[in-house]
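Appendix B, example 12.
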Amino acid sequence: LIKVIFSYVLLSLLILSSLIYLFDHTKKIFLKFSIIALLVTIPYQIYTFNLTEKIFYFSDAGGEQLYWMTNVNNGEYGEWNNSNFDVNCHLSNNICGKDIFKKNHGKIYEGALFLNSIEKDKYFKKIAFENIRKSPLKYFRNVASNFSRMFFNIPYSYVFQRDITIGRLIPNSILLTLIFLSIPINFFYSSKYPSALILFVCISFLYLGLSLLVSAYPRMLNLILPFI
């Protein structure tokens, strides 16, 4: 249940809570929570620093995820794949565009073949940021696809749709409608909410927003469904 994305959620929350504290000293609890939560991660950060000599380095998987999210190929929607390009082959009787993925991404992965994990992470991040610079609109389209995958588990590149998708479409359409309806209501009544509830709302929306930028599937949504 512990995802690396929460380290960036906490960092964003620290920035947000610091700004809130500047204008409203009664919301000191936000700042305290953020600082304590980040302090809890210090032992792991010391461990990763000893391995990598990099500060705030929680994982070496971010570059590869971001690479797939910034995918500039038409007909591909930003979902993550592996170096064999067969991660989605189980979804529809092995029809998963493996050969097309290999044609579009094979040379990129060959360039990372002899790199260690940190160099590989840096390599993919460099390509990812270049993709965003060249095709920002395609990246935002992939983010929109990410949003759809989080709630409805579609779309996937080169994979046939499945009838079980309807099992998510109906309940999650209702859920999404209620979330959108709740936003203006929560904003209007936020001054009457206890600080703890506002804090949870901030964490939830930061988590959802940041997840959309890198990798989002239904299991990411499931994590905070109880709170929603």
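The radius of gyration is 20 Å. The first helix runs from residue 5 to 23.
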